[in-house]
Every structure is written in C-alpha cells, then in structure tokens.
Amino acid sequence: MNHINFKNITEFNLAQNLPEPENPLFSIGSKTMNVNKIQNCVSSNKEVNYTNHFYIISLKNIVSGEIIYGRTKYDCNTGTLLFSAPNQTYTVKDVVISSESWFMAFHEDFIRGLDIQKRIKKYNFFNYNVNEALHLSPKEEQTIKTVFRNIETEYQNNQDEFSKEIIISHLETLLKYADRFYKRQFLNRKEINKSLITRFKDILGAYYDKGQLSEKGIPTVEWLANQLGVSHRYMSDTIKAETGKTAIDQINLYLIEEAKNLLLAPNASISETAFKLGFEYPQYFSRLFKKKTGLSPKEYIESASLN
C-alpha cells in the first residue's frame, strides 16, 4: 500500500491539482467534478494512505469509493464536510467525487498565538473518525459554501494588514456553523445513538460478567469506544447528547448499581465489593458510592436491613 506524507500545503495542493498556495501556511480552492472523474490524487484499484501535517477542511460529494480512518469506513453521503487535524492518517480507495468540491488547508503556525488556536482544540470533529464526519442538509451545504467563497475572495485579494484577520474571522464562522450542524446531526441520529448506548451498556455488562473488572480494573473510555468501533470523543458526545451524562458518569452509575446488588448479599464485605468492581482502593469506592447515593456503603447496608 502506498503512503503519501503531505509535509506542507504546497505538496497537498499539487496532489489536488490546485494552484500553489498564495500563503505557504494557508490555502483554499475549489474544483468542479463529475461522476466519471476520479480524484487526481487517488490511484485506481489501489489503496493509498495519506498523512498531513496541517489542518484540512473539505466539502465534497462522494458517490463511490472508500475513505477509512483506522478500522472504520466513512459512510459516504451527499454534502459531506470532512475535518482532519495535523498528523492524522486516512486511507483512500477509488474515490469518485461529483459536483463542486472545496478544500481548505492551514498550518498551525497560521493560527499560532491567536484565540482560535485554543478554541480549535475544543472542536471534537477534528478528532472524529472519518465515518463520523458531518453530513449537511442542502441549506446547510449552501451556508458552508458561502463561507468558503467569502474566504476565497479574501484569499485572492491583494494581501494587506487586514487580510489574515478577515480570513480568521470567516474561519471561526465556519467552525461555529459546523458545531451547530453537528449538534443537529446528533439529534437526528437518536435511533443510532440509542443503539450505541445499548451496546455500551452491554459491553460493560459482559466485562463484569466475565470477571474482568476484578482482573483488569475499570475499563477506560478509550477501551469502550474501541469495542464499539468509534472514536472516544464521538462516543462521549453521543452519550452526553442522548443521556445528559458523560461516558465516565455512565460507567460510574453502572458500577454503583452493581455495588448495590453486591452489598445486599449476606455477609457482604465493602472491601471485597470494591475489588470485584475494579477499585484498587476501597476508600475511593466508598467516596464514589456516597457521592452518587448520598450514603456510605455501610450506611446503605444498614438502611437496607431496616426495610
């Protein structure tokens, strides 16, 4: 399998058949394609890995082919907004793109020292697996294209002291729209979300039933996401959107419910209960139990015996 490493934006533009960037740290461009034209940087019947050392935002309509991050395949759809952070690797195979496509690339040095550099780290969609990319409605797609065009207009103007500030302002607008549209996407995927949450709880239950809590400890969010085949950020956002609680909260709630069952067994030991549930220190288990129930494990046992 070929591996192409885009060290700079100039290399990326050449691979996309775009002009050399006006600024070595920033570039934007568009292409018009039809269903018979395969993206120029993709070799037919070959899988190619790509790694870029800068941010990429692209809007494209993919009609066939595959784009893969890790083990997950991108669910191709009309009007798709893709986000890639520096040093992420993705696999492309025979991708056919229709209609108008937009590409924006910017190096971290372009935003270094600005407020957007801090804020961009908080946008989870730069860390999502590619199959969790943003699918746009027709109206949303037009909104995003308008922002792309505004950025391109400023990019093509004669550069002056205001150019970068205006481009950054438009970029922040695009990211805010993307954040809004992602939240809409989460709401529209309730059935998918419910399925993911059900599988999340099933995995926790199987982990407990096999005695892995006592053997391996409490599973991490990253491990659970891997079992589900999604990124941990996507899993966390999905669970939070559907339940109002974080993935860690859901893990802790599961542990507390199991703890209640164990503590009501005859001659129950608080220390043994803690170890069975993966807690290395019984004191931590007791603090968490009281935080979630309002009672210490001992108080819970005593109150249950009175009922």
From TrEMBL:
PANTHER family: ARAC-FAMILY TRANSCRIPTIONAL REGULATOR, TRANSCRIPTIONAL REGULATORY PROTEIN
Signal peptide: none
A Pfam family the protein falls into: HTH_18
Descriptive protein name: AraC family transcriptional regulator
Domain HTH araC/xylS-type: 212-303
Keyword set, alphabetical order: DNA-binding, Transcription, Transcription regulation
Top-level taxon: Bacteria
High-level lineage: Bacteria, Pseudomonadati, Bacteroidota, Bacteroidia, Marinilabiliales
Molecular function per GO: DNA-binding transcription factor activity; sequence-specific DNA binding
